[in-house]
Write a structure and sequence with these properties.
The protein is an all-alpha fold. The protein is built from 10 helices and 2 strands. The radius of gyration is 38 Å and the shape is globular.
Length: 289
Amino acid sequence: METPPTPDHVQPDEEVDIPSRPISLDLDLNPDLEEEDENIKSPALQNTSRDMAAKFSSNIENLPPVFSPVRISVSLWTLPFEDAYQQVKKQFVEGTKRQPITLSQQSNFVNYVDAQLLQIQRKFIKNQAESAITYTPTQIIDDLLPVVDLLWILLLSHDPLFGQEEYYIKILGDLEDWLAYYTLPSLATLLASNTNFFVKFFDLFQKFDTQVSFLIDGYYANNRISKMSATEVVRLSPIVMRLRLTIVQKLEHSRAVLDAARNIPATDEALNVLDVEIGRLFEGILERI
């Protein structure tokens, strides 16, 4: 096919007459396209195109499905610290102000808590002498919870501190020794019993975190602030740091197994929850010491 000749260029000093009639929009810019279109419309090519389209469509249907990332719904075991702390403060504000606790009542309280903690310690020591575990971490938590709840209930009376802060420090110190001895249940098995243990486990430590943070901040009792002393905070600081490190180390096996089994929704969810809960351990106390 011959190409059309290039039109002559207008000289700089030459005038050009522009047609005044409308220019047709139906311009034939490539006359060969009509011939190509006619060839494409031939029955043989149309049948070939339909066959290729059907084959391509069939291949697409046979391709393995493409999975989009799944958004896992994570059900955490504890509240964010600020939410839990606001609940503690609300409980205190709404607590009933009663008659001041007498010296006799204080003495009864001290005797009761001492007896409960001594009993836990004896069970733990006896367990160490046994060839099998007879006193489990779950049982320790179950025995500790009433003591911790009693400490908090006494604070709700809005009385000045008379030794409760010392018990918080003592219990956290004992927990460091107790947990160092045990192997915690593994989350890698995803058993309901193991999950239930960790719900109670992290709930207990959030109680410690929020209640001790409350005592560090202090509260008004008898028109004066009652709070942990600077000396008590200094004693508390290394205990909390060592205890947190012990817990993280005890959970490292579960975390490593879950991390190796990534991309399975159940294990991904368990790993996400575990990471969040570890990050929340003593969050409030660590911000205050």
